[in-house]
Design brief:
Radius of gyration: 31 Å
Largest sheet: none
Structural class: mainly alpha
Number of helices: 9
Mean pLDDT: 79
Order of helices and strands: HHHHHHHHH
Helix content: over 70%
Low-confidence stretches: 95-106, 181-187
């Protein structure tokens, strides 16, 4: 069926023309929409987007201009546009809920969420330490430097480095257990 004839029949409300369009172009639309929504959407999202394309054509068949390109290209452009709109909506609302993480079979996801939360708390707690305690803790536990090496780098006696590490660990433990407010440095 010619593009102009198809559009005219769709404009006239002929369901046979619409069914012909569905059968002829469904694979094309699946490829176009699926390539955009595949990463963030479900098969149902893809189907819904394709349905939106068909509804757009059904309601606005006169928007097709044969001088600008083929009907196939026109459908692909509309599908791409609708898929990008849907992609934006889905990617904004794609938030992992804690209940989803717990009920999912991916226990690794839950571990990563908890680890990230703990890392954020630890980072915030370490920021409350004063210098040189902050530097000593970072060098010891993040860069795995020995107290002797830290003493050499910071020009602080090794015994004082060990004492500051001990005091800082006590303070961090207290903060992480919720016993201290994180606003003012004390050590």
């Amino acid at each position: 069926m010619q593009d102009n004839t198809l559009i005219q029949k769709i404009s006239d409300g002929e369901q046979d023309a619409f069914l012909y369009m569905l059968e002829t172009y469904s694979k094309l639309l699946w490829v176009v929409v699926g390539s955009i929504l595949g990463a963030v959407g479900t098969p149902q999202d893809i189907e819904e987007c394709i349905s939106d394309v068909y509804i757009h054509i059904w309601k606005n068949p006169k928007t097709y201009n044969p001088q600008k390109g083929s009907f196939k290209t026109f459908l692909a452009v509309i599908a791409r546009s609708k898929a990008l709109d849907t992609y934006r909506k889905l990617s904004k609302s794609k938030i992992v809920e804690l209940t989803d993480a717990i009920t999912s079979s991916d226990d690794d996801l839950l571990e990563r969420v908890v680890e990230k939360e703990m890392h954020d708390k630890l980072y915030t707690a370490i920021k409350t330490l004063t210098e040189p305690n902050k530097e000593i803790v970072i060098r010891r536990f993040f860069f795995d430097e020995k107290p002797q090496r830290i003493a050499e780098k910071t020009d602080i006696p090794i015994k004082e480095v060990e004492n500051r590490l001990y005091q800082s660990k006590l303070r961090l433990r207290k903060i992480l257990e919720g016993g201290e407010v994180l606003c003012s440095p004390k050590i």
